[in-house]
Task: structure prediction
Amino acid sequence: MSTDVENYVEESLLDAESELGDEYLTFSLADEEYGVDILRVQELRGWEPVTRIPNSPEYVKGVLNLRGAIVPVIDLRVRFNLPIEEYSSLTVVIVLSVKDKQDGHERIISVVVDEISDVVKAKFNEIQTTPKFGSALDTEYISGLADAGGKMLMLLDVDTMLNVSEMQQL
Amino acid sequence: MSIDMEQFHQVFFEESFEGLDIMETGLLNLDNGEADNEEINTIFRAAHSIKGGSGTFGFQNIADFTHIMETLLDEVRDGIRELTHEGINILLKSVDCLRMMMTAASDGGDVDEQEVKTNFDALQTILGSDESAAVENETKEKSTAVSEENQGWKISFAPHKNFMQFGNDPVRVIRELSSLGQLTGQIDTSKVPDFSELNPEDMHLSWDLELQGNVDKAAINDVFAWVEDESDISLSSLNSESKKTNTKKMTAAKTPVAVSKAAVPAADRKATDKKEKSAAASSSIRVGIDKIDDLINMVGELVITQSMLSMLGEDFNMTRLEKLQEGLIQLDRHTRELQESVMQIRMVPISFTFSRFPRMVRDLSEKLDKKIELVMHGENTELDKTVIEKIGDPLVHLVRNSIDHGIEMPEDRLAAGKPETGTIQLNAFHRGGNIVIEITDDGKGIDKDVIYNKGVEKGLVEAGTKLSDQQIYDLLFNPGFSTAAEITDVSGRGVGMDVVKKNIMSLGGAIETHSVKGQGSIFSIRLPLTLAILDGQSVTVGADNYIIPLVSIVESVQPKKEQLNMVAGKGETYKLRDEYLPILRVCDLFNIPDAKAHKLEDGLLVVVEADGKHFGVFVDDLLGQQQVVIKSLESNYKRIEGISGATILGDGSVALILDVPGLIRMSD
Result:
C-alpha cells in the first residue's frame, strides 16, 4: 500500500516536472510556424502604413506611433529571407519588448507576421536544440524547436533576432 | 458648514516648500550682496504666507515658529534692525528647521523638538538683545513709539452677513487673537433674527473685544488679513492718554501687514511688485493662454466624441459600424492631441533659469572687484520643466566658477591686452537634436598643466600618463578637485563641479569643456531632446513627411532653370542673389525611391543655414508650419544619420525631423 502511494507521489512529481514550460505565442510566416515567449508580447495590432526610415536595412519597414512612442517595425519575412507577399487583412504586427544584450536597455520593437496561430505551452523537456546548418543558414536567433500539433515550431530568441546594433544597411 | 481642509494640504505644502526655497535664496542673496528691500520683502512675504497657511491648516507649531521669524524680518524690513551675517545664519538655520517641521507635517515623521527649541531661542535672543537699540529707534519716531508701547487694543469686529459663505470662521479669528494676549470681549447678538427666519449660513453676530498686553498692531492686522474684505474691523488703542482712535476700514490693499509701521516708501513698493512677479514665475508654471485654449477646445471635442459614441452604443446595429469606427478614430486622435497639449504645458522657456544670473553676476563681480558683463542668448529655448529645475544649480555653479576663476582682475586684463570688462555669455540653442547651453567667458582659460599636476598630486592620474585635452578637463569634475590657489567663499572648495556633472548626467546629458589659455573657456552642456518642442516646417519627399526645424530655415524658393548650375558636372548649385548655394537632395541622401520631383525646377528648395553657411535642401513640396514635440528614435531604435528625431503629427502618423548639420555632413 505504502509503495503505491510513494509511486503515485513520484509519478505526479514527474508529471509536474514534465508539465513545466513556457507559453509561446505562435504565428505563421510563409507556411512555417514560429513562436515567441508570450511574456515578451506587449500587444497585437493590425497592419497600418508606417513611416519609412532612410538608409535602413530592407527588413526595417519603418516606425509607427505606439501611443506616443516611436517604435520600429521589422518585417520578419524579409528578415528571414522568405518570399515577400502583399500584406492582407490577416497581417499582424506583434509588439515585443526586447532587451539589448550589450547595455540591457529595454526597447519596444514590433514585427510583421502573416497571421497569429495560437498560444501553446512548450514543455522544457520537449524543446529540442536547433540543428546546425553550417554557414548556409544562420540559426542563432532560434532558441529551440518544439512540436505544435504535429507541426514544427521554431522558438525565436527575440533579443538576438532584434539586435538593433546589427541593423545596418547592407 | 465645514470644509474638508485635507484636500488643500498638498497645495499648502507645495507652496510652503517653494516659499522656503525663496526664503533661502533670498537670505543667501542678502548674505552675498547688500541688504536690499526687494529681497527682504520677498523673504518676508514667503514667511508670511507660510505662517498664514500653517495657521489656517492647524499646524500651530509651524505658525508659531514662523511668526517669530516674521517678527524679526519685519523689523529688518522697516529698517529698525540691521541684519548681520550671524542673523542671516540663524535665519538660514531656521529655514532648515522649518523645512524639517514641514516635512514632518506632510509625511507624518517626527519633529526634532530640540532643534526647534534651539532655533526658536536663537531667534528670540536676537530679538531680545537689540531691544535697547530698537527702543532707541522707536523714540525717534514718536508717533509710532506711542502705539508700540501700547497697553492693549480695543477691537470691534463686525463680520458681514455673507462672512461664512466665503469659508471664514469667526472662531478661528478669535482664537488667534486670544493667542496674542489676554482677550476679553462682548458679543452683540442684537441682529440675530427669529429662529424661524434664521439662515444658519448667514452671520449675525459682532464682537467688541479688548486685547490686553503690548501687542504689535501688525500682528492683529495679520489675524484679520484673511477676513478684512468680508468684515468691518476697527482698532483703537487702550492707552488713555493718547486715545487716538485708529479706526480704519481695511480694504483689499495688497500690503495688509505694512499698515502700522512707518509706511514703506513708494519706490520700495514698486520694487516689491516687480519681485512678486518674478517670484511667481519661478514657483509655478506659467502657461500661455493659447495653450490653455487649445486644451479646452480639445477637451470640448473629446466630450462631443464621447457623447456621440455613447449615443451609438445605446442602440447599436451592424449598419452603424462605420459610424462607430469613425467615432473611435476621432476619439483616438483627440486623446492623442490632448496628451500632447498637456505635454506642451510642461515646456518652459529657459529664461526662467537665466533670469537669476544678471543679479548674481552683478553681486559677485562687485564683491570680487571685477568688471563683468553678462550677455544672454536664446532665452526662449523651451525645455521641460523638470529639466529646467535640475539644470539651474549646475548653471549657477558654472557661472560662479567663470566669474571667480575665469575672469581676471581688471588690471590683469589690461596688462594682458584685453578689455577691462570681461564678458560671460550664456547661450541656449538647439543643435543636432539636442539642446545646448553654453557658458563662455573670455577670461584666463584653463591651464592644462596645472590641472594635470593637480591630478597627479591627488592620485587621480599616474605621473607620466598621456591624456587628451578632454580627459584633462574631465579631471575638473572629480569630487574635491580644486585648483584655485586661494579658496574664496565664492568658489574653490572643489565642491560643485562633480555635482554639476552628476546632475547633468542624471538628465541624460553631457558636459564638454573647451579652453584656450589666456583667451577663455567654454563649458557646453548638451541635454537630450526627449521632451523638447521645436517649431518646424513640414515638407514632403516621396510619400513621407519630414520636419525641418524652423530655426535653421532662411527662406524657401522655387528654383528657376537659369539659377541652377553644375560644378564639374556633379555638384548642383543654386544662385540665390549673389551667393551660390550647394544643393542637397533629400531623396538622394536618404535613398527615397518614390520622390516626385527629379528635376530641380519641379520641386522646392529650402534654404537652410548651418555653421554660418547656406545650403539649399531640395524637397518635393512644402506643407504647413507647426510646433512639434521631439521624440527620440534612439529609445527604441538607433541614431540615423541626418535625422535628429521623430515627431507625431496631428493624424497620428510619425514624421522624421531632419538634422540639418547632419545632412550637410552626409553630403560631404
User: Anything to note?
Assistant: The helical segments of chain A are 2-19, 76-79, 158-161. Chain A is about 15% helix and 45% strand.
